[in-house]
UniProtKB/TrEMBL annotation:
Organism: Natronobacterium haloterrestre
Family: Belongs to the cation transport ATPase (P-type) (TC 3.A.3) family. Type IB subfamily.
Coiled-coil portions: none
Protein name: Cu2+-exporting ATPase
UniProt KW Transmembrane helix keyword: yes
Pfam families: E1-E2_ATPase, Hydrolase
Disulfide bond is among the record's keywords: no
Membrane-crossing residue ranges in chain numbering: 76-93, 113-135, 147-166, 172-189, 324-345, 357-379, 667-690, 696-715
Residue ranges occupied by any P-type ATPase A domain in the UniProt entry: 207-308
GO biological process: copper ion homeostasis
SUPFAM superfamilies registered for this protein in UniProt: Calcium ATPase, transduction domain A, Calcium ATPase, transmembrane domain M, HAD-like
Length: 738
């Protein structure tokens, strides 16, 4: 793909799911800005110490989102441990806990100040970060998670200090410190999970070696930095060493470990002419590799870009959780107002009313809601990456669960994509060898698989193709060239339509029989006269049968799209039990077929090679590029399936459904706590003697957070290796998350 075309594709891609991405961006921008500001403040306080540290390696200089999340993680981790240690005296000298747990601690002069003093220190050190992160939310008039947390700890702090001056029935000191500790722990867990997902980029960067052995013109080797390698350099890859760049094997045989890039569980045999990927590990043999791509053009760099894009995208469920926090802020305020009015009317305004209002505001803080989605997303990302699925857009991953129909491009996806000439017929006066040699001449400059098949057939017959000039590819129809002064064409049925050529009866019968046998027919036209027809066979992939059955079992309609004739398409569709067939479709019309299904109200996924199918991938609700692990420049797909295995489409849908189910469960657990706790804290059951104390509220909040974290971890148990269908054999390359 040329640079201009690539830029056009990139620009178009930025509009894909634009509205959803924009809304996610708006919802998360304030939080990212506030956390980044806090991190910068934290970093400034440590700048002197960090200046004394030694130099970093090349890989440590990678500072994207992974570095930012690591900074957040370390900050929250440090504050959590220090705040927890400072909270111990508060817990020990809490009368409520002493009564609950049946213990006592010695009192001494001034011990009554332990709780307020240590609580103030914990609030100042552990609670202030949440207040700082709430400021941008309030400035933007978009209260969210940080505002909710800040309101809870501030109310508890002010009320507790007031209780020292104006003694009340209870103070919230132990609830205050445990609330802050839980918030810090939750944010530490969240940042740790996100950083682990983000660190995928850093781990990928570490795969690429720092140096390479370049072979000089005189045959010697010199060690040079990988950054100095250029295209067409010849490098030596010793046994056990990392391949320094993408390239082609020129000499040597070896098995290369590619699992870290493609998910392929077994080492892949490499011999002269085979492609190798930078960052993969060479086996026992020695290889000489001609460099084909370096730097940002390598497969590894492309995968890193895709991972970063996926981390920056935000799912609709995450946006919903963020909005829920904002709604909960107003619900808590409303409930507090109603509580104050109701209790004032019932018992007149006194300390009990204030305590009820404070309890409502304190326990409204739903940290579990903040963990509900990020934990699932982090595990989802790990599972997907380890099973060869590169997700560029989390919205697409989430939408995959709702797909009503999936369109497969036939050639190379449902079929092997390797054609061979299996039969041919000519008009009277033209010998088969003459026709085949003429077709090979026209196809001499084409890299299309049909062109290769025709040339290979000519070579097998030891035919010498005549010279061809003025070669021209006719998009979606075939090729044209000048041979011995004659204008000669080779192409499919669309070519005959364009040339308005008549098909002799015996050639038509030949084409009909070939179509019934799921064979593609290619025609040879000389001076607009049809002279020969070639039958090309494309074998159906063995796993395609299982894929169609598995998708049907999941309730998804399967469609097939191809430029082949209707007969060929129908034969393949009947063999695979495909529901809908689009045949004789030109590349520029593929997206229209996607639109046809969308117009029927269906959510449509498109599976293609990511290059020729770019418009259709863009048009689809979920664009899936299959077998494009070594072509990561593809920007039109939402999901890249690294291995050329259509069964990964089934695994994508299964993972999407399992992940969304966990997200829903977590939101229910997180929000359920508030639905249950706020009315009880407000005192709706007070007439029958049931009141939720701040202590019990804090306990429920902790339990909710723990349940959400455990439930997210259960996603790791999803079995992606088995479609749970008797017809679908388990893929041998499925891997579980760590």
């Amino acid at each position: 793909m040329d640079d201009e075309s690539q830029r056009a594709t990139d620009e178009t891609d930025h509009t894909h799911h634009g509205e959803d991405a924009h809304s996610g961006h708006d919802e998360s921008h304030t939080e990212r800005r506030s956390e980044q500001s806090l991190l910068e403040t934290e970093a400034e306080s440590q700048s002197t110490d960090e200046a004394d540290h030694g130099t970093h390696s090349q890989h440590d200089d990678h500072d994207g989102h992974g570095g930012m999340h690591e900074g957040h993680e370390q900050m929250f981790r440090r504050r959590f441990f220090i705040s927890t240690l400072l909270s111990i005296p508060v817990l020990l000298y809490s009368e409520t806990l002493q009564e609950w747990l049946g213990f006592s601690v010695p009192a001494f002069p001034g011990s009554e100040w332990i709780n307020p003093v240590f609580a103030v220190v914990v609030f100042a050190y552990g609670g202030i970060p949440f207040l700082q992160m709430a400021v941008p939310e309030l400035k933007d008039r978009a209260p969210g998670m940080m505002t909710l947390i800040s309101m809870a700890i501030t109310v508890a702090f002010v009320y507790s200090l007031a209780s020292v001056v104006f003694p009340t029935q209870s103070a919230f000191f132990w609830e205050l410190v445990t609330l802050i500790d839980i918030m810090l722990l939750g944010h530490w867990i969240e940042m740790r999970s996100v950083r682990r997902a983000s660190s995928a980029v850093d781990e990928l960067a570490k795969l690429m070696p720092d140096t390479a052995e370049r072979i000089t013109d005189d045959g010697d080797t010199e060690e040079v930095p990988v950054s100095e390698l250029s295209e067409d350099d010849l490098v030596l890859v010793r046994p056990g060493a990392s391949v320094p760049a993408d390239g082609i094997v020129e000499e040597g045989d070896s098995d290369v470990e590619e699992s870290m890039i493609t998910g392929e569980s077994k080492p892949v045999s490499k011999e002269p002419g085979d492609e190798v990927i930078g960052g993969t590990i060479n086996g026992d043999g020695s290889l000489r590799v001609r460099v084909g791509a370096t730097g940002e053009e390598t497969t590894l760099a492309g995968i890193m870009r895709l991972v970063e894009e996926a981390q920056q995208s935000k799912s609709k469920t995450q946006v919903l959780a963020d909005r829920a926090a904002g709604w909960l802020f107003y619900v808590a305020l409303g409930a507090a107002v109603v509580t104050a009015i109701a209790w004032t009317i019932a018992v007149s305004f006194d300390a009990t009313v204030i305590e009820r209002v404070v309890t409502v505001l304190v326990i409204a803080c739903p940290h579990a809601l903040g963990l509900a989605i990020p934990l699932v997303v982090a595990i989802n990302t790990s599972l997907a990456a380890r099973n060869g699925m590169l997700v560029r857009d989390r919205i697409a991953m989430e939408e995959a669960r709702n797909l009503d129909a999936i369109i497969f491009d036939k050639t190379g996806t449902l079929t092997e994509g390797e054609h061979g000439v299996v039969d041919m017929v000519t008009v009277d006066g033209v010998a088969e060898d003459e026709a085949l040699a003429l077709a090979a001449a026209v196809e001499s400059d084409s890299e299309h698989m049909i062109a290769r098949a025709i040339r290979e057939a000519a070579e097998q017959r030891d035919l010498t193709a005549p010279d061809a000039t003025d070669f021209e590819a006719i998009k979606g129809r075939g090729v044209r060239a000048s041979v011995d002064g004659n204008e000669v064409y080779v192409g499919g049925p669309n070519l005959l339509t364009q040339l308005d050529s008549e098909v002799p009866n015996h050639l038509q019968r030949f084409a009909d029989e070939a179509g019934q046998n799921a064979q593609t027919v290619v025609y040879l036209v000389r001076e607009r006269e049809l002279v020969a027809a070639f039958a090309m066979a494309d074998v159906i992939r063995e796993e395609s049968y299982a894929v169609v059955d598995a998708l049907h079992d999941l309730g998804i309609e399967v469609a097939m799209l191809t430029g082949d004739s209707q007969d060929v398409a129908n034969a393949v569709a009947n063999e695979l039990n495909i529901d809908t067939v689009f045949a004789e479709v030109l590349p520029e019309d593929k997206d229209k077929k996607v639109q046809e299904l969308q117009d029927e109200g269906k959510l449509v996924g498109m599976v293609g090679d990511g290059v020729n199918d770019a418009p259709a991938l863009m048009r689809a609700d979920v664009g899936i590029a299959i077998g494009s692990g070594t072509d990561v420049a593809v920007q039109s797909a939402d999901v890249i399936l690294v291995q050329n295995n259509p069964m990964d489409v089934v695994r994508l849908v299964k993972l999407s459904r399992a992940s969304y189910r966990k997200m829903q469960e977590n939101i229910v657990w997180a929000a359920g706590y508030n639905v249950f706790a706020i009315p009880l804290a407000a005192g709706v059951l007070a007439p029958i003697g049931i009141l939720l104390s701040p202590a019990v509220g804090a306990l429920l909040m902790s339990l909710s957070t723990v349940i959400v974290a455990i439930n997210a971890q259960l996603l790791r148990r999803v079995n992606l290796s088995l479609p749970n269908l008797p017809e679908a054999a388990p893929p041998t390359d499925a891997q579980a998350a760590d």
